[in-house]
Amino acid sequence: MKFTKMHGLGNDYVYVETFTQPEPADPEALARAVSDRHFGVGSDGLIMIMPSERADARMRMFNADGSEGEMCGNGVRCVAKYIHDHGLARKDRVTVETGRGVLTLDLTVADGEARLVRVDMGAPILRAAEIPTLLPGDPPIDAPIEVEGRTFAVTAVSMGNPHAVIFVDDVANVPLDRLGPLFETHSAFPRRVNVHFVQVLAPGEVRMRTWERGSGATLACGTGACAVCVAGVLTGRTDRRILAHLPGGDLELEWPEPNASVFMTGPATEVFSGEWPGV
Q: In the chain, at which end, N or C, are there fewer CB atoms within 10 A of the end residue's CB?
């Protein structure tokens, strides 16, 4: 099976296109195998780039633990770059079918390669039952959650996958490896949750760290950065357009008005290609 390793700000996945080769029979097991950073390729998960009847390509993403996720913002930018650069859809605007619908992506191309990708991520999902979360409010804004005997204020947003956003004074001092799993599996989130700790540097600038559902601490989370943008507006902490500093680099986010789409702009990078045996 041929694969390509790609990343968006260090949020790395193994990509397998099924336009020219069969789909893997057990993508969940394959995701666990290739994601292993000692015995596999090493990644935050597996993303399949597939034919679609509704768009230029269809994307399915699997976390490092083999669980399937609805959406990945960094991943969808890489899918757009792949289908452009590899000649599957050689145009500056492409569409990708995802677990939250068909998304439109605009590519900045230089020397025949897509370098930056701007994604229409769709409108945030703000009804608690659809996020889903058991916290009160549509959406829950600074809702109290108790973890390790401490009460945290959580704003919950879905960008096709669930996110919990927690604003803190100093994000560098958050014990992410300890708190992340506790929030991910908290009973307030029946389908688990992606957790983001955020420090507001200015109305238009934040710094964030992420614990992703099924993958753990990652260098970047595109849907999470979008959720942070929305949560900043809902809580009155940030402007509608922000620059988010993630451990792997920066993303530009904009939520122009209520009920509108969130727009995310960031890079996509191809690292190398290879073949995985036995598939």
A: N
CA dihedral 218, 230, 138, 135 (to 10 degrees): 30
Candidate list 78, 221, 226, 229, residue with the active-site label? 221
Domain that holds residue 25: 2-120+266-275
Q: Hey, is 99 helix, strand or coil? A: coil
| Whether pLDDT at 212 is above 90 | yes
pTM of the model: 0.92
The yes-or-no answer on residue 78 being catalytic is no
**Residue 278: what pLDDT?**
76
Same domain? For 146 and 105 the reply is: no
| Alpha-carbon span 47 to 270, nearest angstrom | 14
Asked about 221 being catalytic, the answer comes back as yes
Do the beta carbons of residue 138 and residue 130 sit within 8 Å? Answer: no
* Domains contained in the chain, number: 2
